[in-house]
């Protein structure tokens, strides 16, 4: 074919683009709807003319700050010592009940229906069979009395118990060399943590607070409690755990909070 | 003979000024999310970022600028002898005498190239407060990895309190510093143009230097 005999341009890359990029980002590419893009561009242009303020500049600052935040993720992963234990406290320092926090008020908590609840598993896990609550309760329990530190600045000491996450991940045959563990809540809350923090000795799937089953506002029947992350990285009302190498982000990160958020 | 404020000092000074303003204004935004004192909220007009997360983004960007610039400044000041030459010695008696003179608006600062005892105290003081501020900041950022730092302030809330008071001290310094610079505008000018030329060699070497070299 004459096409093949055409001299290659100096500017043409010797190797074509890596096709795996296309498959990896298929969802993203499919998401780029041309019509939506056009509509977005038109309304963005109109908006900038209306307000007289430079939206492009605003978003440039925002994207620069987000890049710094990603760099800080990397730095924090370097600072993180997998063997460094968080300070623990005595029973009499435990606050009862724990402090409520969510992106909505306590009255709006929708209790999990325990009769139908199952823990779903997905991603890089060998045995993806779902777990019943009884099965989880049958696992060895670990208790941690640790500080919950909120990104806002408040903190309290809590007494949490439940299966150790490292043991659980090992038992279900999760790929412990994967990068991320994501936790999907019953509400639309999702948070992900790095594998090293998931494997930290003070990271548990909590089922109890102060020796009693966790009550509805605090994440019943299952929530994450890790001593090495800020409060918002500890999702409540967990219904699924996913092990993955694809950056899953999280509820608060989408709004600009730092992803690693390690203590 | 080089200028009193070599260009590297001027660049570091103004970098620090901008970084410090970013840190304070974004810090106020973060503070507002969970106030320490019920009566104190910082108005939105003086905080950085529309929401707390943006305040945090600015704060964790500013920390690199402040920290790296500050580190360079400390190394420069120690290695070149600038600190020893300009900031030391501080005699307590002189500090008291000059503080009283300053209170009566009689403090002299005719020779720009020599700091009076009040200036020396303020400059050394603010450097130490900023170092402490970095330490309490790290204690808040990493209360598990750097738990030994957090323990210096009793606990996490102690570190927050120390960080707040450090900010207060730096703000007070800035008020005095800016007010005095405006009262004696040539000091402000010197931090832009470099100021008069000075002999920055140690006194010992200066005395023994042959006259032809002067």
UniProtKB/TrEMBL annotation, chain A:
Any single Pfam family the record assigns to this protein: Oxidored_molyb
Domain Oxidoreductase molybdopterin-binding: 110-252
InterPro entries the UniProt entry points to: OxRdtase_Mopterin-bd_dom (IPR000572), OxRdtase_Mopterin-bd_sf (IPR036374)
Protein name: DMSO/TMAO reductase YedYZ molybdopterin-dependent catalytic subunit
């Amino acid at each position: 074919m004459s096409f093949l005999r055409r001299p290659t341009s100096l500017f043409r890359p010797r190797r074509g683009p890596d096709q795996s990029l296309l498959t990896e980002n298929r969802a993203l590419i499919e998401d780029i709807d041309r019509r939506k893009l056009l509509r977005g561009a038109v309304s963005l242009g109109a908006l900038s003319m209306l307000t007289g303020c430079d939206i492009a500049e605003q978003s440039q600052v925002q994207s620069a700050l987000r890049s710094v935040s990603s760099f800080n993720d990397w730095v924090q992963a370097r600072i993180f010592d997998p063997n460094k234990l968080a300070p623990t406290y005595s029973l009499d320092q435990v606050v009862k009940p724990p402090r409520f926090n969510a992106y909505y008020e306590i009255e709006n908590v929708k209790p999990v229906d325990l009769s139908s609840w199952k823990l779903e598993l997905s991603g890089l896990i060998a045995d993806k069979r779902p777990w019943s609550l009884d099965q989880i309760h049958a696992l060895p329990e670990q208790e941690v009395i640790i500080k919950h530190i909120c990104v806002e600045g408040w903190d309290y000491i809590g007494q949490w118990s439940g299966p150790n996450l490292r043991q659980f991940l090992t038992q279900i045959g999760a790929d412990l060399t994967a990068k991320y563990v994501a936790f999907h809540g019953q509400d639309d809350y999702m948070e992900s943590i790095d594998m090293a923090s998931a494997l930290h000795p003070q990271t548990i799937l909590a089922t109890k607070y102060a020796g009693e089953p966790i009550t509805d506002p605090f994440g019943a029947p299952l929530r994450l409690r890790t001593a090495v992350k800020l409060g918002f990285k500890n999702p409540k009302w967990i219904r699924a755990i996913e092990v993955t190498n694809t950056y899953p982000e999280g509820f608060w990160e989408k709004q600009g909070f730092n992803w690693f958020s390690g203590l | 003979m080089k200028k009193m404020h070599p260009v590297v000092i001027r660049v570091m000074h103004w970098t620090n000024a901008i970084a410090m303003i970013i840190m304070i204004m974004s810090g106020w935004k973060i503070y507002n999310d969970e106030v320490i004192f019920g009566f104190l909220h910082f108005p939105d007009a003086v905080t950085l970022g529309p929401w707390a997360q943006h305040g945090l983004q600015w704060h964790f960007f500013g920390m690199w600028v402040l920290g790296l610039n500050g580190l360079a400044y400390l190394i420069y000041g120690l290695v070149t002898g600038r600190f020893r030459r300009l900031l030391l010695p501080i005699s307590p008696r002189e500090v008291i005498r000059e503080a009283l003179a300053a209170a009566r608006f009689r403090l002299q600062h005719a020779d720009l190239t020599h700091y009076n005892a009040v200036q020396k105290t303020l400059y050394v003081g603010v450097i130490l407060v900023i170092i402490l501020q970095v330490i309490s900041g790290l204690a808040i950022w990493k209360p598990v990895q750097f738990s030994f730092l957090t323990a210096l302030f009793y606990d996490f809330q102690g570190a927050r309190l120390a960080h707040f008071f450090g900010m207060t001290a730096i703000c007070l310094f800035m008020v005095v510093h800016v007010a005095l610079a405006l009262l004696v505008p040539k000091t402000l000018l010197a931090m832009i143009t470099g100021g008069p030329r000075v002999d920055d060699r140690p006194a010992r070497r200066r005395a023994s230097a042959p006259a032809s070299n002067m």
